[in-house]
Amino acid sequence: MDPQQRPLSLSGAPDGPLAGSLRRGRTGVALFHGFTSGPVSVAPWATALAAAGADVEVPLLPGHGTRWEDLERVTATDWRGAARRTVDALLATHEHVVVAGLSMGGALALDAAAHRRVTGVVVVNPGLRFASPLAPLAGWLKYAVRTVEPIANDTVSPEADERAYPRTPVAGVHQVGRLQSAARRGLADITAPVLAFRSTTDHVVPPSSITVLSRGLSPGLLTLRPLENSYHVATLDTDAPIIHAESVRFLSGLPGSPEQAGQHG
Questions:
Q1: What confidence tier does 22 reach under pLDDT thresholds 50, 70, 90?
Q2: Tell me: the pLDDT tens digits for 140-156?
Q3: Residues 6+ positions from 17 with CB-CB distance below 8 Å
Q4: Is 253 strand, coil or helix?
Q5: Is 264 annotated in the active site?
Q6: CA dist list (Å): 40 to 106, 121, 235, 245
Q7: Structural domains of the chain, with CATH
Q8: Which UniProt keywords apply (predicted)?
Q9: I want to staple 108 with a disulfide (CB 3.0 to 4.6 A). Which of 81, 83, 222, 224 is the partner?
Q10: pTM, whole model, 2 decimals?
Q11: How many angstroms separate the Cα of 86 from the Cα of each of 78, 97, 116, 217?
Q12: Do 132 and 204 contact (CB within 8 A), yes or no?
């Protein structure tokens, strides 16, 4: 087990704009990391949301935080189930729940939003399509090629380290494809507002992923924010402060949020 890739459970600051005065009035955020990485990749984002008053849960997704061989034995169903259990736990104790995620975690957040009554969705470079033309063939290629070189630490900043696996199992890539298909199918069922951050240069997720998102959602739900100075792992990159500030602003403006309630109370 990587000692740094641990689940995060952060209580929101009581004086932040996302904090409520009632036991069920606080905002909860289910935040999901990307493929082959772990909570480290979204930890600064989670900390910023908690400082603003949200209770934040970042689960360690099945097959992650240990060794790459474990990713050969998990399925898209395992990841989707873990995400929904996290959301359900927050829904049981919070009036307002937002789902968020980076890359594959963005696909999980969108998939959960299609099946749960969440207040909002925030995604960073969500993975709904593969950039590699070979990735959709992973279901067959896994029998000939067990692993490939990792695509990790795609950042402008040389100091960033998401602590991803040193190899990427092809069987795991196949399961990411299954998750992507499920998330794409569910876009039309999402009713919550969606804020999507998109790096203008991304070496992992293609522009077609955002195209799929914008076309799949109902009109008026999507707000798109470009990131000019970050690559794929933008949550650890130069534009991370933009993600933090605009995520808090977005959550504060959602219908039923504590700040909105205060304005209309």
A1: very low
A2: 778 888 898 888 899 99
A3: 52, 53, 248, 252, 258, 259
A4: coil
A5: no
A6: 15, 20, 10, 19
A7: 8-260 (3.40.50.1820)
A8: Hydrolase
A9: 83
A10: 0.94
A11: 13, 11, 11, 23
A12: no
Model confidence band, residue 265 (pLDDT cutoffs 50, 70, 90): very low
Dihedral (CA of 222, 225, 230, 231) sign: positive
Residues counted in the chain: 265
Residue whose entry in the numeric block shows the structure tokens 């534009």 = 239
Asked if residues 229 and 257 have their Cβ atoms less than 8 Å apart, the reply is no
Q: Indicate which residue of 37, 41, 103, 199 is catalytic.
A: 103
Cβ distance 60 to 6 under 8 Å? yes
What pLDDT is recorded for position 264? Answer: 41
- Tell me the average pLDDT across 212-221: 97
Question: Burial level of 257, CB count in 10 A (0-12/13-18/19+)?
Answer: buried
| CB distance 182 to 80 below 8 Å | yes
Other C-beta atoms within 10 Å of 3: how many?
A: 6
Q: Which of 174, 232, 244, 247 is catalytic?
A: 232
Q: Following DSSP, what letter does each residue of 96-146 receive, concatenated?
A: EEEEEEETHHHHHHHHHHTTS--SEEEEES--SS-SSTTGGGHHHHTTT--
- Residue of 30, 8, 41, 9 whose CA lies nearest to 165: 41
Q: Tell me the β-bridge partners of 197.
A: 124, 225
